[in-house]
Write a structure and sequence with these properties.
The protein has one domain: Aminopeptidase (3-Layer(aba) Sandwich), CATH 3.40.630.30. The protein has three helices and five strands. The chain has helices spanning 40-54, 69-77, 106-109; strands at residues 8-14, 23-31, 59-65, 81-91, 94-104. The protein has a five-stranded mixed β-sheet with strand order 1-2-3-5-4. Strand 1 (8-14) and strand 2 form a beta hairpin.
Length: 120
Amino acid sequence: TENDRIVGFCHVAPSRDGDSDGTAEITALYVHPSFWRLGHGRSLCDEALSHAGKEAFPEISLWVIAENRRARHFYERAGFFDDGGFKSVERPGFVLKEVRYRRKTTAADANSPDGDGAPK
């Protein structure tokens, strides 16, 4: 929030992916464009990592539109990496291509030598 206004939100749940048992998933992370680049997205992401770690999820994943360079860069700066997961979602008149990002949760980072969440 900023000045008692909701400027963004994040939702974390167990992963919906069949190959990711025991992994949390950020199913939504949105910040109103008027509030981009002010740290709100990073704060929401950090809280998602912390929450997933406290819930005993060692890793967290998310899906991002493949062409969304801004979002991909944001997640990469937050320690996520493209894990090779890919899916296409058909919509009327177009196909939406998404890639999966993943990283260790904050609790798991405490045991990581460099805390970046990347596989060793």
